[in-house]
Amino acid sequence: MLTRRQLMIWSVSSLAAFSGGTAVYQLIQKEDFESIETDKYQFLTDSDQILFLSIAPVVLGDTCLKLWTQQNVSFKTILTLIDNAIVNFSKRSQQEVRELLDILWNRAAKLLVARVWTSWTDADATTINNFLQVWRESWLVTLNQGYQALQQLIIAAYYSKTESWSLCDYPGPPIQR
Amino acid sequence: MTSLKLHKNHIDLSKDTLPINKVFDVVIVGSGAGGGIAAEILVQSGLSVAIVEEGAFKTAADFTLNEAQAYPDLYQEAMSRKTKDKGITVMQGRTVGGSTTVNWTSSFRTPEKTLNHWSEVHGVSGFSSEELAPWFKKVEQQLNISPWPIPPNENNSILEKGAHKLGWSAARIPRNVRGCANLGYCGMGCPIDAKQSMLVTTIPAAVKAGATLITNARCQKLIYRGEVVEHILLSPVDKNHQAKNSLVKLACNYVVLSAGAIGTPAILMRSKVPDPRALIGKRTFLHPVTSVLADMPDKVNAFYGAPQSVYSDEFLWRDGVTGKIGYKLEVPPIHPVIGSSIIPVHGEPHSQMMKRFPYFHASLALLRDGFNESSIGGQVELDRFNEPLLDYKANGYLWEGVKSALLNMAELQFAAGAKRIRPFHMDAQWATTWPAAKTMIESLKHQVVRTSLFSAHVMGGCAFGDSPDNSVVDSTGKSHFFNNLSVLDGSLFPTSLGVNPQLTIYAISAKLASGLSERLK
User: Fold this and answer.
1) 3 state DSSP class of B187
2) CATH code for B149-176+289-368+395-447?
3) pLDDT band at A20 (very low <50, low <70, confident <90, very high)
4) Could you tell me if B250 and B443 are in contact, meaning their C-beta atoms sit under 8 angstroms apart?
5) pLDDT of residue A119
6) Inter-helix orientation angle A4-11/A46-60, to 10°
7) Confidence of residue A106 (pLDDT cuts 50, 70, 90)
8) Where are the domains of chain B?
């Protein structure tokens, strides 16, 4: 019997392989999805990892992704950075992030709230961008909060990495330790 | 400084145990502006003192000036603390020295108008400008506070230049530094011990004079019988800054709460202290901050240089003390993590903005909340984990001030030569002229989350005053209920201040701690 993790990987390797040229999956390394690591992170579950690997490339955009490729930074580093941030949040905030991620993985909520009709791994960049925009522009404060949480977690994680600083022409601290 | 970590009087509760059967004369909960000042004064009067700090003992050698390390190490909730509706990001220190270890060093005396308002409206006695003056002088000497003599960095110069062009007031900010190298990383801990925070002044002095410093220890509750606190219960804090389930007892004859304006009310609430008028944790003020980003023609490099050296009080009392909300104009330093994450867009539009990062200037307005009956502040609550949560609801009174401040800041930035400006608001666009900016800002609808608000100044929640009808502690800081408990921190304030609060907390705590030491001797 297939485990949930195996199912997710199967979903990546079969569906994504046949999807169109704009699949987010193609923006990052195929092996990122295929090498989801159970128990590596303190907070992120297997499905959280897939969710962030799907959404983060769209939140960051091509310029950010290309820079990490040039700098030989594995895109999966974003997961470590996000995980490190969340474990320092208050218990309440951690629970709120958990609820947000679970909603995004819940099939009904994904369709109704996020309006993403395919699996996250198969969703193309346009679909994910539309989802982010809908949440950003919604009159529902809860969705604005959800957008803010995802956007801030991913962007802060990206710019916390020294290798990202050339994008914003930041020379770094004047004292190196 | 490093050796102080190894001092016999330092107990790291995450790995060490407390001395058995030791009863301290005074336990001070919190090592920030209030606790730090109180610790030194009380120990010098011959009392046995323990200082309890929730954060770790980090010193200059630990400060890498890297946001990824500084925020989890030195700030409450890794700088992710927000109000209940997520409308306001709250930046508070959580380390030895509290917020004084990570603040931007601005050191203002309390405005006379604020002190008069406290006396006239809130029944606070003993805190006129004249009565506080010697305490300000004492602390200013101790912490080397004086106006910054070095030319401001470009980020601050823009504020000064714009204000002068428009005929608005602007002046240099007094700072608590000694041998400052103008690096610009005060918010990540001073790497050269130039900032005269509690971390390098009163806390080491107190420990060397015999005080015990207990770190990685969260005060969970007070255990009391009748009107006497008998001991407090502490939980060790783990490497992810989470309180463990275990509780250890710390016995004392007197308790000083200096855990800040969210932490102090939370301890009283967790302890289920009698509060017949439901005042604890109420009227918590934030100086809500609204901000405008400007794209300047030349590099600003707002990440380098003393973070705050210029201010304008042109609008601080724009409608008197109790009319429309007034605001103080200053600037924030801009580093990549915080700078990028508060720009509320994503994808290529975000990275294209970030390419202009060295050209960014930001102005900020600190809104002076709590002086008008429409400005009631927030309420500290306990969440399902018994941890504090601040419910602070923005209303029309506040939004009027936000709009007015955004307009003033945009006008100032264009006067200083900005190419384009953009308020921190989800619906804002870049505006390339002042008339276009004015039209855009006037059309913005303000609501929670869409309008970005910040705070680094949490005040109130355990107000002092002569009457138990409207205050939690009396004008000496002593609890109206307990015989052996005082509050000495920013939670004493019945309103916000209208200035960055550290010097007010220092001076008031110094005066009250001196009085307390006389009573306890």
Assistant:
1) helix
2) 3.30.410
3) very low
4) no
5) 80
6) 30
7) confident
8) 2-105+108-142+187-283+457-520, 149-176+289-368+395-447
ipTM of the complex: 0.95
A22 part of a folded domain = yes
Tokens of B444: 């913005």
CA distance linking residue B344 with residue A58, whole number of Å: 14
Q: Does B228 touch chain A (CB under 8 A)?
A: no
Contact between residue B424 and residue B342 where contact means Cβ atoms under 8 Å apart: yes
- pLDDT tens per residue, range B302-325: 999 999 999 999 999 999 999 999
Alpha-carbon torsion (A142, A143, A144, A146), positive or negative: positive
- pLDDT confidence of residue A31: 59
Average pLDDT of span B284-293: 98
CA atoms B383, B386, B389, B391: torsion sign: positive
Residue B139 DSSP code: H
Of A85, A88, A145, the CB nearest to B86: A145
pLDDT recorded at residue B239: 93
- pLDDT of A65 reads 96
Residue of B nearest to A60 (CA): B347
Strand ranges, E, within chain A: none
**Which residue of chain A has the CA closest to B382?**
A92
* Yes or no, beta carbons of B351 and A61 under 8 Å apart: yes
Q: DSSP secondary structure string, B64-109?
A: ---HHHHHHHHBGGGGT-B-TTS-EEE--B-BTTGGGGTS--B--P
Between chains, do A151 and B346 touch, taking CB under 8 Å as contact? Answer: yes
Supply the pLDDT for residue A8. Answer: 44
Which residue range forms the structural domain that includes residue A85?
Answer: 4-168
The answer for A 12-51 residues in CB contact with B (under 8 A) is 42
Check pLDDT > 70 for residue B426: yes
The pTM is what? 0.94
Q: What superfamily in CATH does domain B2-105+108-142+187-283+457-520 come from?
A: FAD/NAD(P)-binding domain (3.50.50.60)
